[in-house]
Amino acid sequence: MKKIYHGSCHCGAIRFSANLDLAPEGQRSEPARPGIWWNSTFRCNCSSCLKTRFWKVFATPEDFTLLSGDDMLTEYRFGSRMIRHVFCKRCGVHPFASADFEIMGGRFYAINIVCLDDASGEELANAPIIYEDGRHDAWDQAPELTSYL
Fold first, then answer.
1. pTM of structure
2. Would you say residue 142 lies in a domain?
C-alpha cells in the first residue's frame, strides 16, 4: 500500500517526501496511472543507473514534494536529454530524476529508493523489481544477468 516516505541525499542538504508503494505483489494499491511503471521498482544496467546504483520507483508530481535543497541540486542530462537527473552539489548523491513522457502519462519523478531514510530493510527486500536492459535500449527486457544490479 502507498505510504509517505522521507528521503535525502547523504549530507542532508536535499530532503523530500514521496507517497510510494513498495509493497510486494498482491499487497499493492491501485496504480497511479496505467502501465508497468506504476506497479514495481526498477533496476537498470544503462551507463548512468549502473554507475550511480540508481534503483527507482516512480511517483506522480502529486506524490512528490521537495522539502529543502533546491539550491543544492545540480542537473545532469545525457543521451536524448529528456530526463533531468539531479544530484547534490555537496555530497554527489542522486536522490531523484524527473521527466515528462506521454507513454507514462505525463510528468513523473523517479525516486532513488536507496535515498529513502525511513524505508525498512524488510520493505526494500520485499519490493518487487523489474530489470531493464538500458545498456541495449531494450527497456522492456531484462538483461541476461541481473545479480549485479
1. 0.92
2. no
